[in-house]
Amino acid sequence: MTTTTHVRPGSRGRAEGPGVAQPPDPAAPRLALSRALSVPFVLAMVAVLPGWVATQPGPGARDAVFWLQLTLCCYAGARLSAMVLTARRRLIQGSFWLFVYIAMGIAPLAQAVLDRVPTPVVGPRSDTVLATALVLLGVVAFDVGALLARHRPAPRGRSRTATVHRTRLYVLIAFAFAASALMVVQLGGLGVFFSSRQEISASVADATGTTGAGAAASQAGSAFLRGFGTVPALIALLFTTRWLVTSRVARRRPLVLALWTGLLALNAVVNNPVSNPRYWFLTVLFALLFTAFPRSPVMYRNALALGAVIALVVFPFADRFRYAEDGGPDHQTESVLVPLTLKDYDQIGMFANTVSFAEAGEGHTYGRQLSGTLLFFVPRSVWDGKPEDSGVRVGKWMGMRNTNLSSPLWAELWLDFGPLGMAAGLAGAGYLAARADRRYVRRTVDDTGPGNVLAVVVPMVAGYSFILLRGPLLQATGRIAIAALCLALVTTFRPDPRKLLR
Questions:
Q1: Residue among 176, 70, 119, 44 nearest 348 (CA)
Q2: What angle do CA 390, 394, 396 make, to 5 degrees?
Q3: How many CB atoms lie under 10 A from the CB of residue 258?
Q4: Do residues 420 and 137 make contact, with C-beta atoms less than 8 angstroms apart?
Q5: Strand, coil or helix: what is 392?
Q6: What's the Cα-to-Cα distance from 250 to each of 35, 242, 267, 449, 497, rounded to whole Å?
Q7: Pairwise CA distance, residues 82 & 484, whole Å
Q8: Taking the chain, what is the end-to-end CA distance rounded to the nearest angstrom?
Q9: Which of the ends of the chain has fewer CB neighbours closer than 10 A, N or C?
């Protein structure tokens, strides 16, 4: 009796049938946790934690805001659980749902229970109701966009692969050391990077002239100094890490090991959590973990869990590094929920303030804010009336002395294009995120070479999505532009085998 073998389409000629053992497909989705662990995990994310926060004692009213917030929390918890429970690594989507669950879900729910917000909400309660409902609409639209991407047919043929040019990578590494060293010298030495964010902000202001009458004209200098001092160092470290992880030859080369060690030490100085915004450090952490463990669903799952722990536990503790000694706020409180009322989690409140700002007579800008973001490099001396970032505009309207306020992506899209435009924008973001995640899985499974640019770009985008989602977009654009220049420097589409990473 003969056994008929079958070749599965796309399996590159591997036989399938009785008696033929097939290796598992690492790109195929499957449950990453056993049922014994997955059920308690889902219950904890969807029911236990939101329920515990919702039942804590507090003066907050159990009104429409509370119930909408609780619904948003449970929905985001279910979607974050789905991201964790599958072995297919959805890096960008996982980061999105982690941010929504913590910053738009659990933290605002705690603020509703305590009736305590990190940034004053100046409008009526109805504006907060509308803002919360719009956030819920936006996350559903994101899911719809991701679902549409799943049904898009796979591209025919094979597109040109972006690879790393070895000589250009050496140039980027040299530039990263030089730019970071210049920033260290300009800001007064290594010590300032391990003091507090308040002190390093003062050093940046002194170095770039962002104090006094010339402050408005010198903000770009401050952004470029910090951007060029931190972004090239991170990207060079990520590419070098990828090189070492995937190449035995590289691990035997003293030069590559020395460069990686130096870049790691450099990032410990310029990208440490003491002197940098906490969302930027989360970007660095996620990008490095996803690059160092590109094919590990366990690390992907643990990274999402670690991100939640950092946001809920470490961020409140790290708030003391924002200020010099004895200069920060007192966090001795009567409720365990009070750490969730920090300024890091003012997104729902600032969306409500944006709604009030528009309804007070400003209205929607119909793309004007977005044009200022896309053309961020045009100086205000050339563009008279160039729009300020959304957080600053709303903060000035509120009468805030400190206008360094968040403007979440939902608020940015709503201010420009209204509710339908916001939903369409988030649906597009979901579509692009799902497409990038799918391509990342395919390329890291089929192409394990050290020069795979996509294997570094997607982890970077996943990490930086925390900053993009928090906003304002205008503040986030400078580092994106610097990263794009670094990627353009090292990327080639016509590789010379002699110049590739090996």
A1: 119
A2: 115
A3: 10
A4: no
A5: helix
A6: 40, 10, 21, 12, 16
A7: 31
A8: 49
A9: N
DSSP 4-28: --EE-TTSTT-EESTT------TTS
Rounded to 10 degrees, the C-alpha dihedral 480/486/492/498 comes to -150
CA distance 70 to 135: 12
Residues 451, 444 contacting (CB under 8 angstroms) = no
Query: What Å distances lie between residue 400 and 26, 209, 242, 341, CA to CA?
Result: 52, 22, 44, 18
250: which 2 tokens? 């590289």
Token readout for 419 is: 């509710």
SS (H, E, C) 258-280: HHHHHHHHHHHHHCCCCCCCHHH
Residue 135 neighbours by CB distance under 10 Å? 27
Pairing of strands 163-164, 491-492: antiparallel
Residue with tokens 């991170």: 234
Separation between Cα atoms, residue 408 and residue 125, nearest integer Å: 19
Contacts of 202 (CB under 8 A, 6+ apart): none
CA distance 89 to 69: 28
Mean pLDDT is lowest, of 21-30, 59-68, 290-299, for: 21-30
Query: DSSP 3-state assignment of 328?
Result: coil
Nearest to 275 by CA among 197, 339, 337: 197
Model confidence pTM above 0.70 = yes
- The amino acid present at 262, given as its one-letter code, is G
User: Tokens 């007064």 — which residue?
Assistant: 188
Phi, psi of 478 (to 5 degrees): -60, -50
Q: Which residue has the tokens 């029911």?
A: 47
CA distances from 192 to 184, 186, 228, 252 (A): 9, 11, 18, 36
| Model pLDDT for residues 381-424, shown as the tens digit of each residue | 788 888 888 888 999 999 888 888 889 999 999 999 999 999 99
pLDDT score of 225: 76
H-helix or E-strand containing 163? strand 163-164
For residue 284 the two structure tokens come to: 């660095």
Q: What are phi and psi of 492, to 5 degrees?
A: -135, 145
Reported as a pLDDT band with limits 50, 70 and 90, residue 44 is confident
Amino acid at 209: G
Taking CB atoms within 8 Å and a gap of at least 24, the contacts of 329-332 are none
Tokens of 105: 């879900």
Nearest to 301 by CA among 41, 40, 24: 41
Strand ranges, E, within 377-416:
none
DSSP 8-state symbol, 274: T
Single out the residue of 256, 264, 311 nearest to residue 283, CA to CA: 311
Q: Could you tell me the two tokens for 410?
A: 């939902």
Length of the chain: 502
Measured CA to CA, the distance from residue 436 to residue 458 in angstroms comes to 7
